[in-house]
Amino acid sequence: MTTQTQSTQATHSGVQNSAHAQSNDSFVVDVRTPAEYNEVHVEGTLNFPLGDLSRSATKIAELAAGRPVTLLCRTGKRAEEGRKLLTKAGVRDAHCMEGGIEAWVGQGNPVMRSGTKAVSIERQVRIAAGSLVFLGSIAAWFINPALVILPGFVGAGLVFAGVTDTCGMAMVLAKMAWNKGQASGASLIA
Questions:
Q1: Where on the phi/psi map is residue 97: left (φ > 0), alpha (ψ -120 to 50), or beta?
Q2: What's the pTM?
Q3: Helices 149-164 & 121-142, crossing angle to 10 degrees?
């Protein structure tokens, strides 16, 4: 019950965030990859990818200058992970935008678009996992039955990701060159 109350308090609905983020009351941080951010983002937000958030917490608190920090991602899941990281790092007034950029766009709020299409991390994980299972199965059938370990390993990783709500494959994919894009807010700490 306590966790649900804390989560409710830490999450703003998209409607509330629409007005809140457009005013100067909140410092909005987008935790998606730079490639996703460059595709579409809320004007005035800074991009601090989830993987860089722990080491960026001090800079975020400094840039927020006492304002509440609102975190945003595609649908809200990564923003919640980011809120937990920032809270652990000492940023006390951190909230998540419920529904993420998808809800923001769905409500007709203004965004900046680059014209290029990025493949989300979630989709990249599905593509990579499916490819590894398929190729591992084919290799086990035609090359060596012992190669069945590859699809088994991927399956175990997916179960682990589901149980712990942590995806190692997503963390690795987020560090790939195609997900880096242009400079982000995290470059401010360099």
A1: beta
A2: 0.63
A3: 150
